[in-house]
Amino acid sequence: MTWYVYVLLNPAGIAYTGIAVDVEDRLRRHNNGCGAKFTRGRGPWREVHREGPMAHGEALRREAAIKRDRAFKASLKPLPAVVPP
Q: Is it true that the peptide bond before 78 is cis, omega within 30 degrees of 0?
């Protein structure tokens, strides 16, 4: 079985990282309130990054690495709009 690591982003700029075999189905479940407890009530979520396919153990290690890497997650977030004076 092949796994993917994915990063989701909500309109407030909060990132969520997870692993799944079927990322599209998992995203649907997150947006319907059936995903992880952390994502409930914080959506809608959109996918901003995906890696894989990879083995389950490798996906778990990569997920943990992404969760620790603040610079990487910050690079996935859009820059705030600058309003001219």
A: no
Cis amide linkage into residue 44, ω under 30° from 0: yes
pTM, 2 dp:
0.88
pLDDT for residue 60: 98
Burial of 35 (0-12, 13-18, 19+ CB in 10 A): buried
Residue type, 54: M
CA dist 8 and 59 (Å) reads: 16
pLDDT in tens, 2-61: 999 999 999 999 999 999 999 999 999 999 998 889 999 999 999 999 999 999 999 999
For 16-84, the DSSP string reads EEEEES-HHHHHHHHHTT-S-GGGTTS---EEEEEEEEE-HHHHHHHHHHHHH-HHHHHHHSPPPPPPP
